[in-house]
Specification:
Elements (H helix, E strand, L loop, with lengths): L1 H4 L2 E5 L2 H12 L5 E4 L5 H9 L3 E4 L24 E4 L9 H11 L3 E4 L7 E2 L2 E2 L6 E5 L10 E5 L5 H11 L5 H20 L2 H10 L14 H9 L8 H4 L12 H12 L1 H16 L17 E4 L3 H10 L12 H5 L11 H9 E4 L4 H10 L13
Parallel strand pairs: 2-3, 2-4, 4-5, 5-8
Antiparallel strand pairs: 1-9, 6-7, 8-9, 10-11
Helix pairs in contact: 2-3, 2-5
Length: about 375
């Protein structure tokens, strides 16, 4: 990763833990962080856990990227940091954000979980801010691991200490479960037992979402916010979908992560090819510039839920949906709402994130079902 990014890289057991370390280092408790409202709720809770107040940003309705031009000038002096999302691998306008952050004397922190192969202005996503975080659970399918990268290598020792203080002890049972999980999932797919498997995961406490967003539980969340910064107080939210997000990794995990990472360029080539195919369809609104190896391609469809149901019947799973936007999900008690929320609401309602490795199959199913492209936009553009 150092060779790939040209930056100092610190291994972390999960992207969310790396982000917490970065936020605690660069942001004073009580500060405000500009972030995307179309984002995983786990990231929202990590920001709260760091003792910070999320501020929801205006978005470009066509790809969900941050729209710095729509951020009111009066808001910038109130911010302590900007957190990008690079949703599905589509780059946020990092050069513009880095320039504005520099003028405001605040850090830019890049969440590159979806964007390990994406490029902005000729540079890898994750090389513009003071820090960035990467996930190895996405493109590599390692289901564990990540990196915290930093512009100043002199901070490595301090950040290593901060990471190590947060690590939970390694559990033998968790290591064995990690080793067995890919084989169990392959068996489930082969036997077409997906509903049974999901029911079993719920019984074991590993399936904690009945809908797109996890339950907010505002009373419990209010008590946790009152003692932040405190990651342990937010464990019930931060652990969702990854209970071992703080666990030290043993040799089994590290060996698999390393093996997966050595194949990254081949995987990125496949994602880029599938992305190119999907961007040529009637449901896409591609941006000018090079085709990115997107983790998911957000097709914009008129009826997202109907399209999702059609694909489910064809055994094509659509995940990584982030609807409603975080300001509608959490309300004013826990976040400052976006000054221009319409674009995020429109995008969240119409975006259908498609795995580019399943491009041909998905296109065939959507066309056979007569799924229509989304019309217009939040302002009829």
């Amino acid at each position: 990763m150092r060779r790939r990014l040209g930056r100092e890289c610190l291994y972390v057991p999960s992207c969310r833990l790396g982000l917490y370390v970065a936020l605690r280092h660069w942001c004073p408790p009580g500060g405000r962080v500009l972030m995307s409202p179309v984002n995983d709720d786990v990231i929202f809770f990590v920001v709260l856990a760091a003792g910070l107040r999320p501020v929801q940003a205006p978005l470009d309705p066509h790809d969900g990227s941050l729209d710095p031009a729509a951020v009111p000038d009066a808001l910038w002096p109130r911010l302590s940091a900007v957190l990008t999302t690079n949703l599905y691998g589509n780059p946020d306008p990092a050069p513009e954000l880095a320039d504005r952050c520099a003028r405001s004397n605040i850090p830019l922190i890049e969440d590159a979980a979806h964007a390990i192969g994406s490029v902005s202005a000729g540079r890898p996503v994750g090389t513009f801010g003071q820090a960035s975080v990467f996930s190895l659970s996405k493109h590599t399918a390692a289901k564990a691991g990540g990196f915290l990268t930093i512009a100043d290598p002199g901070l490595r020792d301090a950040l290593t200490t901060a990471r190590d203080e947060l690590l939970a002890p390694r559990r033998t049972g968790a290591e064995l479960a990690y080793w067995a999980r890919p084989y169990a999932e392959a068996a489930v797919r082969g036997l077409r037992l997906a509903p049974t498997a999901r029911a079993a995961l719920r019984l074991l406490g590993q399936q904690e979402r009945d809908d797109i967003r996890m339950p907010l539980r505002p009373d419990d969340l209010g008590r946790a916010v009152s003692v932040a910064p405190n990651l342990a107080a937010f464990h019930a939210w931060a652990r969702v979908d990854m209970h071992d997000y703080r666990a030290s990794h043993g040799r089994t995990r590290l060996a698999r992560v390393t093996r997966k990472l050595t194949r990254l360029d081949t995987v990125l080539d496949a994602h880029r090819a599938g992305t190119r195919t999907l961007l040529a369809t009637e449901w896409a609104r591609p941006k000018p510039g090079p085709v990115q190896p997107l983790f998911r391609v957000p097709l914009l469809v008129e009826d997202r839920d109907a399209a999702r149901a059609v694909l489910a019947r064809a055994r094509v799973t659509v995940g990584y949906l982030y609807d409603p936007p975080l300001d509608d999900y959490a309300g004013g008690a826990f976040t400052d709402p976006s000054p221009a929320p319409a674009a995020a609401r429109w995008f969240a309602q119409h975006a259908l994130p498609i795995d580019p490795l399943k491009a041909e199959r998905t296109i065939a199913v959507l066309r056979a079902a007569g799924i229509r492209p989304a019309r217009g936009g939040p302002a009829g553009d």
